Amino acid sequence: MPVIVLLRHGLSSANTAGILAGRTPGVSLTEDGTRALEATLRMLPHTSFARLIHSPLLRCVQTAEIAQTHIEVTETRIGEEFVELDYGDWTGRSLADLVTTPDWETVSRRASAMRFPAGEAIAEAADRAVSGVRFLVGELRELERLEQEAAQRPEPPSESSAAGEKPKPAWGMIVSHGDIIKAIIAEALGMPLDDFQRLAVAPGSFTIIDYSGPFPVLTAMSVTAAGLAEAGVPGGGGLSDPE
């Protein structure tokens, strides 16, 4: 019965500057982003996680470190599959400039056909991220199976209070980037990648997907404590909100 929380990194210096950071090193959280992230993490409906996997980029490393002050985690690791898109020649450019390029229409309406100049295709990034989620879901299900087997073993009377109890779902957390999280949500909803720009994931927000049933169920999306005060629009994280 795995449940996965997708946590977007907090507001970064690139977000506030309107720059497409991509994989540029050294892009860190702002003070406001850190404060907002702390407030949002206090809203998490669950605080015990079997796995926390984060992008290797600094803003996600910082976000994961802050998250670990609010939750208990059995295992933490870097997940290259959840690293930001390689925007190639678009990296470091302003969004105001990029919206004037011929490729912007493709990014907005035909994402599955877009490969960034000298960079990565959106479809490739979506595939690696979705594969990473599937691996994590399988890992969590195996942990649940082992826990169930342990609960069913005969125990001495003094230690048998948990015997027969229904195993609790294993929770995992992925700390990643806006477009990566949107691609994961789109796949979970059965949404074509070409429509993923209809989703909005605000900086520092969490999204919850329940993988316990025959198909994934989106139970919460782009939750932030700051809400309109930070994002300016409901949910934030739209095309006007670069990495």
From TrEMBL:
Signal peptide: none annotated. This is Histidine phosphatase family protein. It comes from Brevibacterium casei. One of its GO terms (molecular function) is phosphatase activity. Residues 147-170 are annotated as: Disordered. Gene3D superfamilies: Phosphoglycerate mutase-like (3.40.50.1240). It comes from the Bacteria. Pfam families: His_Phos_1. GO terms for cellular component: cytoplasm. SMART domains: PGAM.
